[in-house]
Design brief:
- The chain has eight helices and four strands, in the order ααααβαααβαββ.
- By secondary structure, the chain is mainly α.
- The model is unreliable at 302-314 (pLDDT under 50).
Length: 314
């Protein structure tokens, strides 16, 4: 009997890992198809600027999200009901933005960053356009496939730490696999295939994967911090991270309306530093929220007159 239980348990765990890897594969295929085919579609439509960026982004979401929703209900992934989504989203945005402001502000005070006078109109335009593209290209599909489907698949079999590390490991596989898919799509449509590698072209592989690891763990912390509509907390955190980094680190190249000079090579460490601060903040928020939920629910009488205790969901 014990041997049978062991085999069943091993089979269940193997199935959970397979589903998690399937979620990562869906994201990698969607990203490769979107980035490989999207620019060609934009050229065929004769559009440029923001519409040209939106076409590949929309294609990624159009491939990834429906595939996952065919095998999982939105509620089981953490989308929650409509009344809770904005609250969760704002928590993700607020915690990540506060951590970035704290760490980047400290870096500025230490002389690691020098800021030029911003252009408010250009900055607002950048924030809006970047949010639209990043939501469709990265935040929505990645959170649905990874912190939604992959994390949920692992959580019931591997516990909190195992599911966090497993989901992040799957996250690290996505960029490399997507470059293979993108190269294949490029060949099919007669375009020059991009280079294949573990990181996007132009990124140092080791630095990129280290940052992606810290980022992935922060997103899992956001996923587990909010009880209602937790996936929207990760979407908010994801969008905020992308907006802050692109404005601060790539503001000149992206015409973001803000220019920041890094006066020392150590300034690049400010990004993982604020991600770590955000991770701790999300973990603390989740702990306080769970205690508050248990305290409030313990005051609710049961039908037998005893206190009713409800466990906080993550």
């Amino acid at each position: 009997m014990s041997a049978l239980r062991h085999r069943v348990s091993a089979s269940d765990r193997g199935g959970a890992v397979a589903r998690a890897l399937g979620g990562g594969l869906v994201m990698a295929v969607a990203l490769g198809v979107g980035t490989g085919l999207g620019p060609a579609l934009a050229d065929a439509c004769g559009v440029g600027g923001l519409p040209a960026r939106l076409i590949p982004a929309a294609l990624v979401s159009a491939v990834a999200v429906p595939l996952v929703l065919r095998v999982a209900r939105p509620g089981s992934l953490g989308f929650g009901n409509a009344g809770l989504r904005l609250h969760a989203f704002l928590i993700g945005v607020g915690v990540t933005a506060a951590a970035a402001a704290l760490v980047l502000g400290a870096g500025t005070a230490a002389g690691m960053l020098e800021w030029a006078r911003p252009d408010p109109a250009a900055l607002l335009g950048f924030v809006v356009s970047n949010a639209l593209v990043a939501f469709l290209l990265e935040a929505l599909p990645e959170e649905t496939t990874l912190r939604g489907y992959a994390w949920t698949s692992l959580r019931g079999r591997f516990g909190a730490m195992g599911s966090a590390l497993g989901t992040t490991a799957v996250f690290l596989l996505v960029p490399g696999v997507s470059t293979v898919v993108e190269a294949g799509v490029a060949r099919l449509i007669g375009e020059e295939p991009p280079p294949i590698g573990p990181a996007p072209s132009g990124q140092h592989p080791v630095d990129y994967l280290v940052l992606l690891t810290v980022f992935g763990l922060m997103l899992v912390a956001a996923r587990t911090a909010v009880a209602g509509a937790p996936l929207w907390a990760t979407i908010g955190a994801h969008l905020t991270f992308l907006t802050v980094n692109r404005a601060v680190l790539e503001g000149n190249e992206r015409d973001a309306g803000v220019s920041v000079d890094q006066t020392t090579p150590d300034a690049v460490l400010l990004v993982p530093a604020y991600l770590l601060v955000a991770t701790v903040a999300f973990l603390a928020y989740g702990r306080v929220a769970r205690r508050g939920s248990l305290t409030a629910s313990s005051d609710l009488p049961r039908q037998d007159g005893q206190p009713y205790v409800r466990h906080h969901g993550g």
